[in-house]
C-alpha cells in the first residue's frame, strides 16, 4: 500500500472502489476510517440502530485477502455500505423503526442485501428510520430522531423515512447507503441532508426481505454523495428477483453508458407558476438557478401545463393508509403497543377505508397516470424543488403536514426521480433539485443529474463539523 489518504471517510464510494482496486489502500483501511468517524459522531447524531464493527472488520480482512490474491468478485469489492433498518439480514434484528419490534430477528436476508454482499460490499450497520417508514420529517418518537449534521446547534429534520441513512452518508459515517421511498423517503433525506437520492420505479429493485409499508408503492433506492455513486449502487441492486413478482419481466438497466452524455437537446419541464405558492424563497431561488444552469448546458426549459396540482395527489394517500393497516393494523389498534402517536394515527386511518373506496382510489390513480403521461408528452423530465423548505427545527414539526408535496406524485404516478443538492441557505442549510422522469427511465434522470453536478459543486460541500475537523 502507498500514499493512503489522511481520511478515507471523506472519499466517495467510487473513489474508495478505485483506490481499493489498485491497492492504494485496503478495505481494512476504509472500514477503520469509517468506524472511527462513527465512534466520533454517533453519540450525537444517532444515525445507526446498530453498528456491526466486529463483523465489518472481519469482512474487510477477508476482502483484503481476496483482492490481494487476485480473487476480487467485482469493482465494488471491499466498499462499505449502510442499510436502513427495514432490510433483513439473517440473524440480525430488524425493528423497522418500531420499539414494538426491538427483538424481531430476521429469518432470512433481503435480496438487495444479498446482492450487495455477493459483490463484496461490507455492511457497516443498520440505520434509523421513521417507524414503519411512515413519515417524511425523519422523526421517531420512541427510538429517537437522528441529528441533521448541517446544523450542529439546533436539531433539525433529517428527512424521512430514511433518516439514519441520510445522516450517516452526509456525516461521512458511510460512503453510501440504502433507503426506501414510498412517498419521498429517499429524496426527502437527500434534500435535507445535502445528498443525492434516487427513487426508482416499482419493480426495478426487489423489495423481498424489506419490511413493507405499502406493497403497491414501496421502492428501495440509493442515498449517496454524488450522482455517479447513486448510479453505481442502483446498478448493483437492480434486476429481476423470483421472490418479488413486481420485478418479473423488468430487465436490468445500466445507466453508466449514457451518464456523461450531457443535456444538450433534452426538453425539460419547468413547473407551473401556481406550484411556486407556499415555497420558501431560498428554495425557489436555487430552483431557478438550477434551471438556468441546465439551460446553459444546452437543455430546452419549457413550462409544463399539468392536469392537476401536485397537492391533489395527497388524496391518493389512502392507498398507503389502507396497505399499512393491513400490515400493522392490529398493533396500531392495541393501545398498549409502543407506537408513535403520529404513526399510529396514520395506520388507523386505513381502517376507515372500505374496499369500494380503495378500489375507487386505485381507478382514480390510473386515470391520473394517463393524464400526466399525456401532459409529459414531448418532455424528457419534469424539474421541481424536492421540498418546500430547507430542514426545519424539530420543535417546529407539524406531523399533520408532511413535506412530500413535490415527491409524492412520483410514487403515485409510477415515475422515477432523482434529488440532488442545488444550493444552500444563508445559514448553510442544503437546498435540493428534483428531476422526475417516466417510469423505468432512471438512466435519463441520472444523466441530467450528472450534467448538473458536472457544472456545479454543491454536492462537494461538507457539514460544519466535518469541515471544522479537517481545518484543524
| Overall body shape | globular
CA-based gyration radius: 21 Å
Count of discrete domains: 1
Number of strands: 11
Which ranges are low-confidence, i.e. pLDDT below 50, for 5 or more consecutive residues?
none
User: For this structure, what is the CATH class?
Assistant: Alpha Beta
Q: Summarize model confidence as the mean pLDDT.
A: 97
Classified in CATH, the superfamily is: Amidase signature (AS) domain
Q: What is the CATH third-level topology name?
A: Amidase signature (AS) enzymes
Distance between the termini: 26 Å
- Helix-and-strand structural type: alpha/beta
Order of helices and strands: HHEHEHEHEHEEHEHEHHHEHEEHH
Strand order of the largest sheet: 1-3-2-4-6-5-10-11-9-7-8
Organism: Methylobacterium radiodurans
Function: Hydrolyzes indole-3-acetamide (IAM) into indole-3-acetic acid (IAA).
Protein name: Indoleacetamide hydrolase
Domain Amidase: 29-445
What key attributes describe this structure?
472 residues; Amidase signature (AS) enzymes; 11 strands; 13% strand; globular; catalytic activity; Amidase; Amidase_dom; Indoleacetamide hydrolase
Kindly describe this structure.
The protein has 472 residues and is of the alpha/beta class. The protein contains 14 helices and 11 strands. It has one domain (9-471): Amidase signature (AS) enzymes (Alpha-Beta Complex). It has helices at residues 13-21, 27-45, 53-68, 111-118, 163-170, 187-193, 227-237, 281-296, 318-333, 341-349, 355-376, 408-412, 442-455, 464-471; strands spanning 48-51, 80-84, 122-127, 176-181, 196-199, 219-224, 267-270, 300-303, 381-385, 416-424, 430-437. The mean pLDDT is 97. It comes from Methylobacterium radiodurans. Residues 29-445 form the Amidase domain. Hydrolyzes indole-3-acetamide (IAM) into indole-3-acetic acid (IAA). This is Indoleacetamide hydrolase.
Amino acid at each position: 500500500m502507498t500514499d493512503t489518504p489522511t481520511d478515507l471517510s471523506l472519499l466517495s464510494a467510487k473513489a474508495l472502489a478505485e483506490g481499493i482496486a489498485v491497492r492504494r489502500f485496503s478495505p481494512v483501511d476504509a472500514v477503520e476510517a469509517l468506524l472511527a468517524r462513527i465512534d466520533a459522531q454517533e453519540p450525537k447524531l444517532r444515525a445507526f440502530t446498530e453498528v456491526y464493527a466486529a463483523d465489518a472488520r472481519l469482512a474487510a480482512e477477508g476482502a483484503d485477502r481476496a483482492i490481494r490474491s487476485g480473487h476480487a468478485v467485482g469493482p465494488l469489492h471491499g466498499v462499505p455500505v449502510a442499510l436502513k433498518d427495514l432490510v433483513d439480514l439473517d440473524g440480525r434484528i430488524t425493528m423497522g423503526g418500531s420499539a414494538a419490534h426491538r427483538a424481531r430477528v430476521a429469518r432470512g436476508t433481503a435480496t438487495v442485501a444479498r446482492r450487495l454482499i455477493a459483490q463484496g460490499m461490507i455492511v457497516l450497520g443498520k440505520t434509523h428510520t421513521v417507524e414503519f417508514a411512515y413519515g417524511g420529517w425523519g422523526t421517531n418518537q420512541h427510538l429517537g430522531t437522528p441529528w441533521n449534521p448541517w446544523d450542529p446547534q439546533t436539531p433539525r429534520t433529517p428527512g424521512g423515512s430514511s433518516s439514519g441513512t441520510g445522516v450517516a452518508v452526509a456525516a461521512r459515517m458511510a460512503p453510501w447507503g440504502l433507503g426506501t421511498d414510498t412517498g419521498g423517503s429517499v429524496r426527502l433525506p437527500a434534500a435535507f441532508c445535502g445528498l443525492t437520492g434516487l427513487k426508482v420505479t416499482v419493480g426495478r429493485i426487489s423489495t423481498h426481505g424489506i419490511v413493507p409499508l405499502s406493497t403497491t408503492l414501496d421502492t428501495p433506492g440509493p442515498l449517496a454523495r454524488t450522482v455517479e455513486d447513486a448510479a453505481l449502487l442502483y446498478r448493483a441492486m437492480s434486476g429481476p428477483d423470483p421472490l418479488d413478482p413486481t420485478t418479473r419481466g423488468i430487465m436490468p438497466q445500466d445507466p453508466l453508458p449514457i451518464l456523461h452524455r450531457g443535456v444538450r437537446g433534452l426538453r425539460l419541464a419547468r413547473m407551473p407558476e401556481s406550484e411556486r405558492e407556499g415555497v420558501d424563497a431560498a428554495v425557489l431561488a436555487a430552483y431557478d438557478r438550477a434551471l438556468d444552469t441546465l439551460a446553459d448546458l444546452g437543455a430546452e426549459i419549457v413550462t409544463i401545463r399539468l392536469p392537476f396540482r401536485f397537492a391533489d395527489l395527497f388524496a391518493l394517500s389512502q392507498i398507503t393508509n389502507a396497505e399499512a393497516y393491513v400490515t400493522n393494523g392490529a398493533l396500531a389498534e392495541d393501545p398498549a403497543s409502543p407506537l408513535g402517536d403520529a404513526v399510529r394515527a396514520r395506520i388507523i386511518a386505513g381502517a376507515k377505508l372500505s374496499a369500494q373506496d380503495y378500489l375507487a382510489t386505485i381507478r382514480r390513480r390510473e386515470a391520473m397516470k394517463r393524464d400526466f403521461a399525456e401532459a409529459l408528452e414531448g418532455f424528457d423530465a419534469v424539474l421541481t424543488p424536492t421540498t418546500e423548505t430547507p430542514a426545519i427545527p424539530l420543535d417546529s414539526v407539524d406531523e399533520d403536514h408532511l413535506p412530500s408535496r413535490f415527491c409524492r406524485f412520483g410514487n403515485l404516478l409510477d415515475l422515477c426521480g432523482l434529488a440532488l443538492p442545488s444550493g444552500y441557505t444563508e445559514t448553510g442549510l442544503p437546498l435540493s433539485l428534483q428531476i422526475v422522469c417516466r417510469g423505468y427511465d432512471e438512466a435519463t434522470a441520472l444523466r441530467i443529474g450528472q450534467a448538473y453536478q458536472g457544472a456545479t459543486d454543491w454536492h462537494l460541500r461538507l457539514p460544519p463539523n466535518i469541515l471544522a475537523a479537517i481545518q484543524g
